[in-house]
Amino acid sequence: MTTQPVALVTGASSGIGKSAAIALAQKGFRVFGTGRVTAHLAPLEGVTFLDLDVTDDAAATAAVATVIAQSGRLDVLVNNAGIGSAGAAEENSAALARNIFDINVFGVIRMTNAALPHMRAQGSGRIVNLSSILGIIPQPYMAVYAASKHAVEGYSESLDHEVREYGVRVLLIEPAYTNTAFDANSVRPDRPLHTYALQRRVFEEYLAESIRAGDDPAVVAKAIVAAATDTKPKPRYPVGRSARVSTMRRLVPAGIFDKQLRKLNQLPA
Which CDD domains did the record assign (predicted)? Predict the structure, then answer.
C-alpha cells in the first residue's frame, strides 16, 4: 500500500478533467484518470488512464476496484464526467433528459457508492463533485442540464452531512462558463419546435460566446486541488465569474435578479 495520496478523476480525457488530473499529479497525487476509450490518448505524466462508462454500474465498481488493487487506497474522487444539453425544456423528450441524468447525476451516485466503502474503511477521503453555476441559478434553454446540476448540489450537500463523521467530505465545485468543448459536445433537442427556434438560436450564440470568453480549465483545476487538499475544506467552491453570480443570487432581490437574467438572455421583459 502506497503512502502517496491517490486520486481518481472521471472524464479526464479533455477539458476540466484533464486539467484537474495534471494539477493533482503536480501536487503529488498518484492520479487515475478515466474516459470512455483512453487507448488513443497521449500519455500524461503521473496519470494512469482507465476506460470507464459512468452509466454502467459494474464499470464504476470495477474502476474503483482497479485503483484499490494498484494503490491500496483512494483519497480523492473527482466526479467530473458529464455532458451538456441545450434547447427549450419542451423540446427535450423525457428519454433525452433521462440520458443526461444518467451521466450527470447517476454517474456521480454510481462512482460515489463504489468509492465510499473504501474511504470509510480508511477513515478519510474527499469526494469532489463538479456542479456548475447552473446548479444554483436558472438558465433558459438549458433546463435539463441545470436540473441535473441542481440535483448534484442537493445530493452532495446532503451526503456530506451523512459521511462527515467517518472522515469523508463531499464538496462542490461551481464553475461558470469554461473554455472547453462543452458547446460542441452538448446534446441538442430531439424534438425541436418552431415556436422556440428563434430564441434557441439567440441562446446558442450567447452560449458559444460565453464559452469562448470563459475561464481557462486550469482555473477550475486549481479549485479542485484546493477542495482535495484544504485542511478545512469549504462545502462549495465557486470558480471565476460564478463567485460573483453566486453572491448576486444570495443578496440581490428576486425580482431584480429575474429581470437581469431575462435581459442577459434577450428575453422579453
Answer: 17beta-HSD-like_SDR_c (cd05374)
